[in-house]
Structures are given as structure tokens and as C-alpha cells.
Amino acid sequence: MTALQAICGRYRRLLACAAVTHLLAVTATAIARLLPPQGVVVLTLSGLPLYLAWALADYRAFLLAAFSTIAVVRIEPAPFDVLVPVVLVAGLAGRHFQIKTDTRFWVLVAFLTLSVASVAQAGDLQAAIRYVAITGYLAVLYLAVAGLRRQDTRQAVTTGIVVAALATTALTLVAFYRVPRLQHLLYHRGPRWKGTFKDPNVLGAFLVLPLAWSVERAMVGGQVGWMLSAALLLLGLVMSFSRGAVLAAAVTLAIMAVIALRRREYAQVRRGALTLALGLAVVGGFVLAHDLAPALVGRAALQSYDSTRFEVQHKALTGGLLPERVLGIGPGQFEAAYGYAAHSLYLRILSENGLPALVLFAALVAMHFVGVEPGGGTALAVLAGQLVDSLVVDSLHWRHLWIALAMACWHRRCAGPASPAGLA
Q1: Is the CB of residue 82 less than 8 Å from the CB of residue 41?
Q2: To 5 degrees, how large is the angle CA 273–CA 197–CA 280?
Q3: If you write DSSP's letter for every residue of 333-386 in order, what string do you get?
Q4: Do 90 and 96 touch, CB atoms closer than 8 A?
């Protein structure tokens, strides 16, 4: 593999131009619906040899490009999912990440083991196997991102997510003005935005991480570019009309402010407040200009379906605590069993995998808040916000939840410091 990496390195620029061109064609085709979902998958697969060669030549640049597609998930598997094997193979070949078999690793393995064991309880075996396979895939992605050893590769992941968030938000803003071939980026009920996701709630939750990162960059340096980035992302988050995402963002930003105040970083707090004030002004102006205030106020109140949701959740909670359901009802079986979505990550795990699995997942999450370095405040704030959002949405298969967990690992003392750029 070393010889192949050397050959690829000679043609790094050529490989980068060709791979970026192909990837842009894939994303444009997926967003504009120029091909059916199967056609997009085939088109993405056709570029795998090219992507692998580029990843071997320049892993950091490939990571940046791959994570810039993470928001394009209107089809399954999404283009990003097809790129993940390249991330893994090239990462292992170049020793760009290291998977540590520590306590966190074994708790994750135990959780996945119970998830597999609960398949035996499922009525729909095919759905159960598919569901647990997706969980396993996301766990592998989490381990790979958490194990990134170099600072430049970690930054590539974060930057890629910000690029993806800005792109999907900007495109949806354009779609709001009824531009042809982009109107499907708006929700079919009302003025809500869903972007390149399947659901507005996913768009809103996804934007929390890049919003927090943009605010942090603005707090540290005060650059106008990061302030404008935060304003655009805040607009996209509000226009998703996702109550859980707004709550998650509020929790995240509040924790960031508390951390900065405790460190007496008053200049950063002022810049952060100015950034949010700019963002709120943009949101307020947009809402008033398009007479969206009544819709936002109506969305903030209890909805007609909330009572049904609470009834179903009460039944699921009661059933999940029964002794005979120690392994749950099986992965992916909640809707079939209760005729309604779980709308809670924790309730879904309890119902489908059992109480021991929920305890293991809670332990896994708790480990990310222990032994955190001083620079990890924003990562933990984002994770805390995502966990709050998960109270009201089922986020187990949301890619950005597992990536938020992985980013929190970068700042744990037991994880070790990241190597500087250029060191393996």
C-alpha cells in the first residue's frame, strides 16, 4: 500500500481535480433529482477507485470533501455513506486514525451486542437486521472519527460539516423564492425548510453543530465571515420550525456562554453576543418581511398530534419496563408495535433493545463528559444540546449525533493529544 500511496501522491493535484469534479456531479445530480435514487448510488460507486486514489494521496483534503456531502441524505444510501468505506480504508492504510480498545469501546460493543440479541424478539426480521446494521455502521463511523490522530484531519471534518451546512441552508433560502428544481427543499406542509434532508427536524438538529462552531470562531477572532455564517445557519435553524432543534441550540449556546464567563473571557462573550444579535436581526427581518410570525408562534405551541405522541410514549415506557421485555421488542419494530414513531431516542432504545441496552448507551454517553480538556467546552455543549433534542426525536440513526460523540472524544485527556499536521 505504501508504493500505491507514493504513486498516488505524484498525481495528487490531478486526482483532486478529477475527484472533486465527479463529487460535484454526484451532489448536483442528487439535489436536483436528475437521476432516480438508484442512479445516484451507481454514479457515486463509479467514482470509488478515483476517491480511493485521492484519499491515499491527500487524506485531509478527501475528508474535507467527503464531509461536505454529509447533508445530502435524500436517498439511502446517501453519497456520504458510499464514501465512508474509502474513509476507513485510506485511514487505516495511512494510519490516520487509531481505534483504542478502552472502556468506552467495550461499552459500545456491549450495547451493539444487546442490539443484535434483541433481533430475536422482532416480528419483522428483515427490518430488524437492517436497523441494527445501520446502527453498527454508525458506530464504526464514530470510532473512526473519534480516533483521528492529527489536528488537520480533525479540522477537515469540522470544516466539511460547516461547508455542508452553509450549502444546504443557502440552497434552501434560494428555494424559498420558488426557484425551479429546488422547491422540494421546502417541506410540503407550510413554509418549513428541510433542505437536502428528508425532514425539517433533521435539518434543524444538524445545523446546531456548525452554528456552535461558527459562533466559537467569531468569539475567538471576531471575523465578519464567521458572524455571517452564524447568521445564515441561525436562519436555517429557525426556518426548520423544529422545536427540539431550537431548544438544542439554546442549550448549546448557553453552555458555551457559561464556560466563557467562568473563564472570565469577557471579550469573547461580547463578540459572541454581537454575533447572536446579528443573527437574530437577520432572522427577525426575514420573518417580518415574509409574514412568518403567526406560523412560528403556532409551531411553538402544542400541536394536535402531541397528545397522541404522549399516549404512545406512555404505553411504550410502561411496556419497556416489563421484566419479560428485558431484550425489548426488536430493532426497528416500534412503529409496527405502536402504530406511531417513538419521537425519543431513549424511549426507542428502551422499547426495542431493553433496559440494559439503555443503561449501556447512557453509560457510553456519560463517558464523554469525563476527563475533558479545557478546550473541549464547545464539543460538550454541542453534545449536550443533541442529547436534549433526543428527548423529543429519535436520533439514533442521525449521522451528526454520532459525529458529535466522536468530536467530544477529541478533547478527553485519556484520548491523548492530536498530532500536529504532517505527523502520523
Answers
A1: yes
A2: 20
A3: -HHHHHSS----HHHHHHHHH-HHHHHHHHHHHHHTTSSB-GGGHHHHHHHHHH
A4: yes
DSSP output for 178-220: T-TT-GGGB-SSTT-B-TTSSSHHHHHHHHHHHHHHHHHHHHH
Residues 6+ apart with CB under 8 A from 249: 207, 208, 211, 212, 234, 237, 385
pLDDT at 321 over 50: yes
Summarize pLDDT for 58-70 with one digit per residue, the tens. 999 999 999 999 9
From its phi and psi, is residue 422 left (phi > 0), alpha (psi between -120 and 50) or beta? left
H-only helix segments in 123-177: 125-146, 151-175
Would you tell me how many other CB atoms lie within 10 Å of the CB of residue 370? 10
Of the two residues 423 and 277, the one the predictor is more confident about is 277
Helix (H) or strand (E) run with residue 110 in it:
helix 103-117
Spatial CB neighbours of 209, under 8 Å, sequence gap ≥ 6: 161, 165, 382, 386, 400, 403, 404, 407
At 419, phi and psi to the nearest 5? -75, 145
Q: Is the pTM of this model over 0.85?
A: yes
The CA-atom distances, in angstroms, between 54 and each of 127, 162, 268, 376, 379 are 36, 22, 39, 31, 29
CB atoms under 10 Å from CB of 80, counted, come to 22
Q: What are the CA-CA distances from residue 46 to residues 7, 19, 52, 258, 394 (Å)?
A: 21, 11, 11, 48, 33
- Please give the average per-residue pLDDT across 381-408, as a whole number: 95
